[in-house]
Amino acid sequence: MLLSPTALESMRGRLIVSAQAYPGEPMRDPRTMGQVAASAVIGGAAAVRVQGLADVQAARSAVEVPVIGLFKDGHDSVFITPTIRHALAVASAGAHIVALDGTRRKRPDGASLAETVAAVQSDSLASVMADCGSLADADAAAEAGADLIGTTLAGYTGERGRTEGPDLELIEQLAAADLGRPVIAEGRIHTPAQARAALDAGAYAVVVGTAITHPASITGWFVDALGA
C-alpha cells in the first residue's frame, strides 16, 4: 500500500520506532512485535519499522500509523530486503514503505537498485526507503527513484567510520545535498539528546530501535555501567 502524502507529512519532525528482535530471542514473535509497535504508538511514535513478513502483517493489524517493512536475509553485505523477490513480498504483506539496501553494492539477484525500486513502486504497491551508507549511496538511491533516504547503513559498508552515536556529519551532508527526498536518520541513536541532534542536523524524521525496543541491549548497558 503506497504511502500517501498526508501520511508522509505526519512523520515530519517525529519519531519512528523500530521494533525488531533477533532470532532465538524470547521476543522473536510477530504477535509480540505487533504489541511492542502498538505500545510505541501509544507513546507517540509516528510510524513503526518491523522486520519479517509476519511482523509486517501483525503491525498492520496493531497500529494505524505508517508501517515500514523489511526482510533480512543473511548477515553480510546486502541483506536488508536484498532482492526484488524479498521487496515484493514485504509490499504484499502490507507495508506502506519497503526498506531495502540502498547502497551501490551488487545485489544478490543481479538487479539494479533502480529496477528494484521500480518493481516495488509499480501499481502503487508501496513506497521505498533506501538504507544508505554514504552521500554517494544517497545520490544513487535518489537517482534510482527511492522515496526516502535513510542513514541506516552509515558505518557498516566500509565507506565511513562507525561513529559512537548517529552519523550527524552524514545527516548534514544529505540535508545540504537537497536530494528532493526526506532524509531519515537511523543508526546508533541511543538517547533523546542524540535523536534531537539528528533532527537538528537536518533529518526529516528519526528512527530509534534498540534503545526503545530491545530489552537485552538496554539491560546490558545498565549492567556494564554498574560493573564499571
From TrEMBL:
InterPro entries: Aldolase_TIM, NanE, RibuloseP-bd_barrel. Pathway: Amino-sugar metabolism; N-acetylneuraminate degradation; D-fructose 6-phosphate from N-acetylneuraminate: step 3/5. It holds the Pfam family NanE. Keywords: Carbohydrate metabolism, Isomerase. Its EC number is 5.1.3.9. The keyword Protein transport does not apply. It is an enzyme of class 5 (isomerase). Converts N-acetylmannosamine-6-phosphate (ManNAc-6-P) to N-acetylglucosamine-6-phosphate (GlcNAc-6-P). Belongs to the NanE family. This is Putative N-acetylmannosamine-6-phosphate 2-epimerase. It comes from Zhihengliuella salsuginis.
